Amino acid sequence: MNLMNRMKRLLPIMAVLVVLAGCQPYKAGGLDPSAGLPLIANTAQAVEDLYGSSDRWWEGFGDNELNRLVEDALAKNLEIKGAAERVLQSREIARQYGASRLPTISAGFSGTRARQQGATGPATGNTYNLSATASYEIDIWGKLGARARAAVYESEAAVEQLKARYMSISAEASEQYFMVIQQNEHIALSDLTISSLERILQSVELRYGAGLVSSLDVYQARQNLAMSSTERPGYEINRHGALAALAVIMGNTPERSPEINGKNLPEPPPFPHVIPSDLLERRPDVQAALLALKASDEKVAAAVADRFPSFNLSLTYGGAGSDLDSILDSPNIFWNLLMQTALPVFDAGRRKSEVRRSESVLRERLASYHGTVLNSLREAHVALLRNRTSEEQVRLFYLSVEAGEDTLRVAQDQYLQGITDYMNLLSAQQQLYTARNSLVRAKRGLLSARIELARALGGTWMDEQLNTLSTEEEARNEDGQ
How far apart are CA 65 and CA 209, in angstroms? Predict the structure, then answer.
């Protein structure tokens, strides 16, 4: 009968153990992020065609002024500084989650002096207590480990986001730099055109004074000169706007814009005609999305493990006495070892709901990763196409300018000889001016296409920038100690 009673008491515990034995926590890492994604054909040496021997793509333009400006922007940009701080924050969070897997030890000391009534009268005495407590959660189901790994993945994702910011700022600085150079070319072309139109106006006025042409030619020449002069202020405005944007990119106020002396747009470097096979590894945004996906996978494992019992060990060791010198003597020593188990019984579905939420986040991150991959392929594809068409467009505009110069020379000679009227000369002037400005815009468009391609293909040069961040972090940690 006594044995039966003991068995009845053990039945609930045995039932719990049977249920736990049949439960299998979620195992992270079994997800295949590449399932359903297209493969990129192997295209070795494709990126070398663009970068040459340097992975720092802007150096391919051969412009020392651009190199200096981009380096300053990478060192001083406030968005980069903010992203760098987010990296440091995520690393500290990862350290916190990693520390949760280790025991925590705390020490305590108390001293009391009290006076109380005794059998022989009032008595005054001291009581001292010195103790150390160590606590540790046994991570049977991998909950703490999953949370720590998720934090590490998120920290690595923050690093990739910082790399993406480096890439973005280098591209933005280059774009604004070339915008300034483009406006310089437009201004120089405008001045050249105005000077040419002034000379033509003088010729027309001389011919009018000689009675060879009507006053209409004079008025048309003056109107043409005035119309061409109106465009120059617009180029000045665009130039100052680009300089102000550069100043902000470099962490300065607009009035502290850098001095740029370049007069002509550089020749663009060559570019690859195929998408490199290691595109996804070179793109920091793709890597950040992949790491975020892995972090979500670990968080699902942590949410599932949170539904299982937790096991905690606690050990307290210390001494108590009325004398500090003897507080740790053998008779005064005390210790306490406690093992505590907590099994969720009723939480109104909170933990189960958290599992479903975490699984939904995982599916969302998977869709986001696939979308980022496809978008990276689209950007690379469009950038390659834009580079091909931009090069052809520049070539055609060069031909247009050559033809326009020949046309203007013939039209000017015929007009001065009285063979044609001023309308032919006016048309030739306007067409050449339009062709020259269009050529400048096309050359700038080709440079922008190269920058777009550099962003689309990603890179590894950002790793060099991270070395500076790691050095600063180590110095800051040493100062904090």
Answer: 51
